[in-house]
Every structure is written in structure tokens, then in C-alpha cells.
């Protein structure tokens, strides 16, 4: 059925990226700016994705509109246009460190961002929304019930311990998945969900495993503790995640669908840490250690649906992506221009 709220998109599509200054948002914006004739707007509070030289250059070069403000306040949405062909909803507070230290803020901020965006769409003209979710939504299913790995999209979502702060992020992403799919069905706009699986790359901040490793290796820790050495993950380089996301937005026939975006190149955390050590020329010793509480023992997405319906095919193998990322962080730390936290 034709969505009656779809704007005309004269002169190329009008695209809004909520949270467009963050790690994934910035890279999606960059891809669209360089490969599409779209009018782009970034909306962000810049708490995490600060306006560094990379961001400023991108905005100025491609004449991207920037709306800065706190979007947990509904009034901030009044600064946006009334109509967009596409809306990428990426805005949220993320990270295990944040979940463990400020779980109440994750609940408050992420819930407000989701609800305010949905209510803004109610009074606006929006063609299609892509909501970015997470594999954390089904981490409890894997751990508690031993669900199939690689894991397909129809996996039941589960919170293993509702009181554990680690799962506050997943709870808000479950809310977002349900919210966008159901608002879309009732209000007549299109909505698609993507669940990211361990996306990494340059400019991702320092609240993730790979930047942590670079910092620790630079301190020459010895012995170097390998936390969760026997756990497995399938890491997805940022360029592949961007391509999967844009395909999910732009491919026809994806309304109401959920796609797992990642790779099926499953490795152990021990493999990741040891290879990062090789890249850092580490000469010390390693010592296996327990992992963080609430961390799932195994995670790898089944990306068959994204492959067959979107034509998605990851291209960057983990060792290649890891080298690019480690080199970038070393150069960044040596530059002394410390913008990211």
C-alpha cells in the first residue's frame, strides 16, 4: 500500500539522521553524502559524537544541515523539517560501561528518544524509518536456552536477569523495535529494524573492546589479562555495517522486516586479543581471566536473510579491519588531539 505521508523528495531525497554524529551515524552520513544526491540533516546532542575535524569537514564539504539539541526534550523536534523521505533513528546511549554505571540514565534517555521520535512522526510526514537495534536483545535467549548459533532474526527476545544493569540497553532497544513496528503499522509509514553485531572501526570512542585493548597494550600491561578468552563474537567492520544499513533502508519490500547486520566470521575473544597484541608488537605474557558479568558466552548472527533479501555481503575480514582500527587508534593517541572518550 502506498504510504500517503511520503514527501515528494524533489531534487533528491530528504534524509534525517537522528544520532548522526555518533560512530555509526557519522559513517552512514559520510556514505550517503559521497554516494547519493540527498539533502542530509544530522540531529544530535553531541554528547558522544563531538564535532571533531572529521565531522566539521564532512558537514562543510557536503553542505549538511546540523540540528544540535537535547532530543529527550520533545520541543527540540520543532527545529526539524516537517517532511523527510527517510529517517535513520540511531540516537541512544550505548556501551557496557554506561549500562553498568548509569543504568537509570540509559532507561531515561533511550526511552525518551524513542517515544519523542515516534510522537514527532505522528505529526510529521515521514516516508520510512530505520531503527537501529542490537544483538543484546537476544543475548539472554542464547545464554539461558542455548538457542541456535548462528542466530536468525526470528529468535525470541529475552532478558535473562531483569534487574541486572547490563540489560537496560537491551530493554530499551526491545521497546524501540516494538514501538517503531507498531506505530508504523497504525500510522502508515514504513519501518525497518536492523540489529547490529559487534560493529567496530576508527572513531568509535573508547568504551568498546578494541579501543580498550589498544590503550592497555600501550601501557604494556604484563601479564596481559585476557578477559572472556573463550567467548566468541563475530565482529563487523564499520564499512560493512553501513552498507547493510543503507541496503535495509533503500531496498523495496523491507517494511516491517528485521535484519541481522554483521558477519558470520566467528572468532574467540582470545583470538582477537592475541592478534591485536601482534599488531601492537607486544612481547609480554598473557593470562586468561573471567569476563564481565552478564556477558554472553557466544554470539554470531545468521545473515542469510540480509544476504538474500538485501544483497548484503560483508567484505572486510576481521584481521584486516582490526589492523585498520588499531593503526587509527595508535595514530590518534600519538597525535595528542584527544577528542573521544
Which properties best describe this structure?
13 strands, 17% strand, Rossmann fold, 341 residues, globular, two-stranded parallel ribbon, single chain, 11 helices, seven-stranded parallel sheet, 40% helix, disordered N terminus, alpha/beta
What does this structure look like?
- The longest helix is centred in the N-terminal third of the chain and has 20 residues, at 103-122.
- Helix content is 40%, strand content 17%.
- The chain has eleven helices and 13 strands.
- The strands form four sheets. The chain has a seven-stranded parallel β-sheet, with helices on both faces.
- It is an alpha/beta fold and 341 residues long.
- It has a domain at 14-200 and 235-264 and 302-315: Rossmann fold.
Give the SSE map.
Layout (H helix, E strand, L loop, with lengths): L13 E5 L4 H13 L3 E6 L8 H10 L2 E4 L14 E7 L6 H6 L1 H20 L2 E10 L4 H7 L22 H20 L2 E7 L2 E2 L8 H10 L5 E4 L4 E2 L2 E2 H13 L7 E4 L5 E2 H11 L6 E4 L14 H7 L7 H18 L6
Parallel strand pairs: 1-2, 1-4, 2-3, 4-5, 5-6, 6-11, 7-10, 8-13
Antiparallel strand pairs: 9-12
Helix pairs in contact: 1-8, 4-6, 9-11
Amino acid at each position: 500500500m502506498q504510504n500517503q505521508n511520503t514527501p515528494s523528495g524533489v531534487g533528491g531525497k530528504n534524509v534525517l539522521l537522528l544520532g548522526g554524529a555518533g560512530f555509526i551515524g557519522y559513517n552512514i552520513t559520510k556514505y550517503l553524502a559521497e554516494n547519493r544526491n540527498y539533502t542530509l540533516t544530522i540531529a544530535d546532542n553531541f554528547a558522544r559524537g563531538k564535532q571533531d575535524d572529521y565531522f566539521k569537514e564532512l558537514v562543510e564539504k557536503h553542505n549538511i544541515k546540523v540540528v544540535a539539541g537535547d532530543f529527550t526534550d520533545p520541543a527540540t523536534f520543532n527545529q526539524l523539517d516537517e517532511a523527510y523521505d527517510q529517517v535513520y533513528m540511531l540516537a541512544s546511549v550505548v556501551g557496557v560501561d554506561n549500562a553498568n554505571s548509569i543504568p537509570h540514565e540509559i532507561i531515561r534517555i533511550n526511552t525518551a528518544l524513542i517515544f519523542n521520535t515516534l510522537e514527532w512522526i505522528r505529526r510529521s510526514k515521514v516516508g520510512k524509518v530505520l531503527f537501529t537495534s542490537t544483538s543484546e536483545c537476544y543475548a539472554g535467549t542464547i545464554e539461558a536456552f542455548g538457542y541456535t548459533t548462528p542466530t536468525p532474526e526470528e529468535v525470541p527476545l529475552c532478558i535473562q536477569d531483569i534487574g541486572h544493569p547490563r540489560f537496560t540497553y537491551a530493554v530499551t532497544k526491545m521497546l524501540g523495535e516494538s514501538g517503531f513496528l507498531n506505530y508504523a503499522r497504525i500510522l502508515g509509514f514504513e519501518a525497518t529494524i536492523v540489529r547490529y553485531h559487534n560493529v567496530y572501526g576508527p572513531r568509535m570512542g573508547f568504551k568498546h573492546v578494541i579501543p580498550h585493548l589498544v590503550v592497555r597494550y600501550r601501557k604494556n600491561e604484563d601479564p596481559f589479562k585476557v578477559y572472556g578468552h573463550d567467548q566468541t563474537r563475530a565482529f563487523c567492520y564499520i564499512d560493512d555495517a553501513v552498507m547493510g544499513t543503507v541496503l535495509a533502508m533503500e531496498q523495496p519490500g523491507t517494511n516491517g522486516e528485521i535484519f541481522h547486520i554483521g558477519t558470520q566470521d566467528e572468532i574467540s575473544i582470545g583470538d582477537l586479543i592475541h592478534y591485536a597484541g601482534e599488531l601492537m608488537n607486544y612481547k609480554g605474557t598473557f593470562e586468561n581471566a573471567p569476563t564481565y558479568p552478564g556477558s554472553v558466552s557466544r554470539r554470531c548472527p545468521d545473515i542469510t536473510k540480509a544476504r538474500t533479501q538485501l544483497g548484503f555481503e560483508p567484505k572486510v575480514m576481521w584481521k584486516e579491519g582490526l589492523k585498520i582500527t588499531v593503526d587509527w587508534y595508535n595514530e590518534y593517541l600519538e597525535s595528542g588531539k584527544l577528542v573521544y572518550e
